[in-house]
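Hi team,

As requested, here is the filled-out complex form for the magnesium ion run. I kept the field names the same as last time so the parser does not choke. Let me know if anything looks off before we queue the next batch.

— J.
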Amino acid sequence: MSEEVLVELRHVHKKFTTRHVLPVDEETRKRRLFKKRDVHAAKDISFTIRRGEIFGLLGPNGAGKTTAVKMISGLVRPDSGNVFVNGLDVEKKRRRILRMVGVVLEGTRTSLWPLTPLENLIYYGTLKDVPGALLRPRAHDLLDFIGLKDKKNIQVRRLSRGQKQKLAICIALIADPQVLLLDEPTTGLDVLSGRAIKDKVMEMTREQGRSVLVTTHDMHVAQELCDRIAIINNGEMIACRRTDELLDLFSEQVFVFKLNQPIDPSEFSLIPGIVSAKMEEGSEGPALVVQVVREPETLRSEALYAVPARLRQSGCLLHAVSQRQQNLESVFLHLTDSAVTR
Ligand SMILES: Nc1ncnc2c1ncn2[C@@H]1O[C@H](COP(=O)(O)OP(=O)(O)O)[C@@H](O)[C@H]1O
Ligand SMILES: [Mg+2]
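And here is what came back:
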């Protein structure tokens, strides 16, 4: 991955106001319009995506992921702040940027179903001014690359959902964009199709030097695919870090003490430096699970000394001590629970 930045969002805000139109009033014959509340789809969002990087936007439904994708591709204009692609301001250079960015929006019917995949690519390539001599070979290459080789000449409506999604990615790639935006690319696909798409996304990022933005509400997709992840919730960015750092952040904090018998965890919660303590009954017997502070180091160390000392005092046998590997799901719950890290 290079240091070159291909996409940048700088302090972007976007608010939607939803209006409800009521039926005509019988007495006054007037139609009343009332404003519903404002929805913040982006509150001061800033991040960058480098060349050759897969960047993930992770968040629950309604968090603002699709809005961010639309702002990068010039489909939604931010209220304030700037979006740059390859150093160009999307608002000022919209037409040029349309050629640099390929986008697959969630659930949209991009492809024309009565045509074949090959015809679709020729059609979209022509719309995007891909020179004729390049277009045909590129269309064939893309279909071979994504795994639709033997479906080239079958009407799109006869393809499976996963195959249609693969075709949508080919359509997004037909003008050879440097930036590819994939909105929930694996949602609704079976395991095999999802796997195939993830593999292809990795391949084209690493080998072809593109930048890819993937939005997802699926922690596993984010954890597996992305080099860096921004977690957003209600339009706010609550974390933006390398995926391994995000996981380490919490793995460092949770320790599991396997015991021969259950013990009252409440006295452990009172030890300075311990954030929480609870008993878990696993298949291998009871375990005391404690979360310690990350910093300061001395407090953390004291807390870690105190636990086995107290277990010994109470006559417990200690079978094993381990650090709990965290997954993104628990990190996400931690972060949305309390905005600890930024
Ligand atoms: N065109 C629009 N008009 C009104 N509200 C919108 C519009 N687009 C998105 N929103 C609202 O903005 C919020 C973020 O939406 P979206 O970006 O689609 O979230 P996500 O993709 O993370 O599920 C939601 O509350 C949604 O209802
Ligand atoms: Mg969405």
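Two things worth flagging: Residues 191-208 form the longest helix (18 residues). The first strand starts at residue 5 and ends at 24.

Thanks,
J.
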